[in-house]
Amino acid sequence: MLARPIRSPNTLRASCSAPRPVIRSVAVTGVVLAALLAPVSPAVAAEVLVRGEASFKVPADTTLAALPADAPVRAADLRGGMLSFELSYDDATPDADADPWTGRYERAIRAFRVRIGDTLLDMPVSSARLVVSDGGQGRMYRESVQFVADARAGGYTVQAGWVQLNQAAMTADLRGATGVLDGDRLPAPSRLVALPTSGEFDRAFYLRIDAPGDAARPLLYLSTSKLSVGLVGPATAAAGATAR
Questions:
Q1: pTM score, two decimals?
Q2: Domain spans of the chain?
């Protein structure tokens, strides 16, 4: 369910080893399925486009050397130490969770793409989830907004996520107006991209790749808090907000 790994227009066909066509095939299936299931309501849809870029610590040479040739991300892509992502979501999507402190916005995410070097991971929206927690899920001391998507590339599993947290001592109660979120509804786009967090490391983007049959230890795990995130399109003028 992953991604069209794009090397370059001229070398795509040559660089596709045996698993590559499967990757593209499954990705298309995921996108089509989401399109069939998503409610169509153009009159009330309010699609928000978010783009971000980040630097990350380049993995050790031993880690890069151990990456299999058919891994979803190549060592050459990682040596640049930069990634970018783009996602869009419908902020008119209703909450599907009865918990008054947890908002699950099913099928709200319309696109979720991650680029590292020359590789583009086009995550299937059928697996993507947008969750807002205002001290919900039994953790009244933590607020969060999370965009997460899962995919498969051949035998590999891939997860990408953009997460923002505001948390306090475990005895604190951040529900309601006490914290930075006032309930589990989706924050306004300008608020969402610049949500106040409890620390610089509580706003992060991550990518995890697990090898076939080995979920105990990831083949690759990238996490970075060196983010620049902003709105694109009509919402930009009203927001004028960039989170760093």
A1: 0.78
A2: 12-243
